[in-house]
Please model this.
Amino acid sequence: MRYALMLADLAAIFVAVDMRFFAPAPAWIERHYSNGYYPHIDTALRSVAQPLPFSAGDALAIVFVVTLGTWLFDTTRDAFRRRAFGKIGVAGLRICGLLALIFMWFMVAWGYSYGRIPATAKIIVDNGRTNEDSVAAFADRVIDELNSNADAAHAERVPSVAEMGARLGPTFEAAIHRLGDDASYSAPPIKPTIFQLFMTASGSDGFMDPLTHELNVDATLSPYERPAIYAHEWGHMAGFADESEANLIAVLACTNSSDPLFRYSGWLLTLFNLPSNVHVTHRLSALAASDIDAIRRRYARQTNPTVAHAQRTAYNAYLHANRVKAGYASYEYFIRWLTGAHFDENGLPLVRARTRSG
Model:
């Protein structure tokens, strides 16, 4: 039995390494995973996790850490007592095998989404419209849009999560279908999480658990940030792993909405992702400027620089490991699509014919 378990561990490690370094071609992933297996996987995972009143991902994390820690402590103590140091090596192999199984689950449940055909190969971009002057003109438009929607956004009643999902649904679906999804994805609930303190300390707005397909959003976000952050994480749940693609989906879903609060939220997300050196000539209204200042002050008050740096470094390494060459900087890439693409009458970017199906 011991040797059988060791062989199982080695087999799991071998399969995990193979999945990491020998991914299928993007066209295959786009057609057979993103628009094949993945929607069914998402439905299955959400049918189990979402009805729970707590985060299944949190529960699994607690069970994993407590069980692994207890087992590792007992195994190490017993090995030293008996001077059977080979047990420590076996324990290390067992941990690697377990991590390999988790990685396999990650890849099948969501991770292959990193390998689908990228938006850069789908969206038609006019490079002549992505120069410094064009981005500056777009930045002025962002200011104008914020000013024109600020009053109506503040006058609106803050929607519940269910209302937000239902009202964003049509424009969200239009955005993901334009970028390559054939399936539809119902609006997810927002789960409370044990990682709330970490999110505020690290400056993270939210995350989608790739293992359970649950959505968590920072509880301290203002009502004007929440719709765009919600749509961003919902975009991840719809199979768009790239951060800039999720940002683009969020902005398209929000700014194409008839709801001024959602439009305001989408333009806020855009503003915070503009290049730091962009030259803006238009001025924010007092109300919009007050909201932006409040958001910045909240981040400055809550964020721990050490935690934020560690989180950014770790996530940057994670993105590079998943073949996102730009790493953390990929969040801002959608600005190039917003300035360089041509848009139809529905506010959606023009794309190359059927690249989404491989």
Q: What stands out?
A: The beta strands are 206-209, 214-217.
